[in-house]
Write a structure and sequence with these properties.
CATH class of the largest domain: Mainly Alpha
Radius of gyration: 21 Å
Bound molecules: flavin-adenine dinucleotide
CATH topology of the largest domain: Butyryl-CoA Dehydrogenase, subunit A, domain 3
Number of strands: 7
Largest sheet: 4 strands, antiparallel
Structural class: alpha+beta
Helix content: 40-55%
């Protein structure tokens, strides 16, 4: 067994320690009363799991992307996708790979135990998938930058100390290449000039999404990550890990749905025989299970490649596509197996369907994955 596999097994075991202490009911309760799932994140902290994936020299326990994937997948299979860990986990990658030693000390190391967290703010209402078209602008004034603009869909920002805020420091029309002029800053989420508006989205409960309004927010120049205008370099480091962690949510949720369906149709017997004996239910479930295992193999293969230092966009894109599709498929058949009870929140399937479905849209939609595969794997012309 190689070291990546050892990590994956160890982290899966450690994640089961969280599941023993935190029932799915905690997430359901938080969703109902609008509170943050502190018990989940505090237990992860007690067991040292916020340091998973963070290199030891930055205060973490190491393990790379494979270990992060194993953690997210295992908790998701128990109906507890740890969104805040996932976002902090990849936001801090941009900081420790392209930030200063002082930034690592001040903003990365304190995340190793989950006591401090980082949101990631790139999406804008009018830019959407087209990151290069963002308009939030940071203007240099003396030793600071003054930031104005608006973000949307920013997950968990009100429960994070900082956000990695992606801005433009040069207008799109003034740069030779759209990737030039993008600059990230580490911004206090309670800085003067920031206003949050909770969006009416119930996809990843109890974590919520927010619109973020930035009105003359003053940020010291030492909060800039990397060189001015070269922010895309740092963001690329976290891009594939983010896709793989959301793929891990997909695989975990697919496990959750399939397990529930199997358990239910072993017992349910409206005609005297368990409905699990009907091929109309058994075969689609079996097919989804086979597709899930294939998608999972690709997910761990992609994670391992990244951990081994391979520069690959193709395998993570394919993994993201397949994992997110199989998650929706699993919920669809699991609901069919439950009949009318599939729509009863007490059966706790319909509750997680939006979360599974969202993985085909966020953090990047599947059409962009197909674009990537079409262009970079098949060598076809760019379509947009
Ligand atoms: C639950 C959730 C959490 C999120 N959390 C965060 C967060 O923490 N931080 C953050 O910055 N953002 C976050 N997002 C935003 C997310 O990354 C965006 O929703 C996503 O990037 C797509 O942008 P959009 O919604 O504006 O879609 P649009 O860009 O309007 O695209 C809509 C649809 O058009 C199609 N499409 C778009 N472009 C192309 C193309 N070039 N080729 C083919 N088809 C295309 C796709 O089908 C796509 O689904 C979150 C979103 C959700 C739903």
């Amino acid at each position: 067994m190689d070291s990546v596999e050892t990590w994956v097994n160890d982290i899966r075991q450690a994640a089961k320690g969280v599941i023993k202490q935190v029932p799915r009911q905690h997430i359901i309760d938080c969703d109902k009363d609008g509170s943050f799932p502190n018990k989940l994140y505090d237990t992860m902290s007690e067991l040292g799991l916020w340091g998973v994936g963070l290199p030891e020299e930055h205060g973490g326990m190491g393990g790379g992307v494979s270990a992060m994937v194993a953690l997210v997948e295992t908790l998701s299979a128990a109906g507890m996708p740890p969104f805040n860990y996932l976002i902090t986990g990849f936001a801090r990658m941009a900081i420790y790979s392209h930030g200063t030693p002082e930034q690592v000390e001040q903003f990365v190391k304190p995340t190793a135990d989950g006591k401090k967290r980082i949101a990631f703010a790139i999406t804008e209402p009018n830019a959407g998938t087209n990151t290069m078209a963002i308009k939030t602008f940071a203007k240099k004034e003396g030793d600071s930058y003054i930031i104005n603009g608006q973000k949307a869909f920013i997950s968990g920002v009100n429960d994070c100390e900082w956000m990695l805020l992606i801005t433009r420091t040069q207008l799109l029309k003034d740069v030779p290449n759209p990737a030039v002029g993008i600059t990230p800053f580490i911004v206090d989420t309670n800085a003067a000039g920031i206003a949050l508006n909770e969006m009416r989205i119930r996809v990843s409960p109890p974590d919520r999404q927010y619109e973020v309004f930035l009105d003359d927010v003053q940020v010291p120049a030492e909060r800039m990550v990397g060189k001015e205008g070269e922010g895309m370099k740092g963001l690329f480091v976290g891009l594939n890990p983010e896709r793989l962690m959301t793929s891990a949510i997909s695989c975990g949720l697919a496990d959750y749905a399939i397990d529930k369906a199997v358990e239910y149709i072993k017992e349910r017997a409206p005609f005297g025989k368990p409905t699990g004996s009907y091929q109309g239910l058994q075969h689609p479930l079996a097919r989804t299970k086979a597709r899930l295992e294939a998608a999972r193999l690709m997910l761990y293969d992609a994670a391992k490649r990244i951990d081994m230092g391979e520069r690959t966009g193709a395998v993570p894109s394919m993994a993201k596509l397949l994992c997110s599709e199989v998650a929706t498929e699993a919920f669809d058949i699991a609901i069919q197996c439950h009949g009318g009870y599939g729509f009863d929140e007490d059966y706790d399937l319909i509750t997680l369907l939006p979360c599974a479905r969202a993985q085909r849209v966020a953090p990047v939609n599947n059409e962009m994955m197909l674009n990537f595969i079409g262009e970079h794997v098949l060598g076809l012309p760019k379509s947009y």
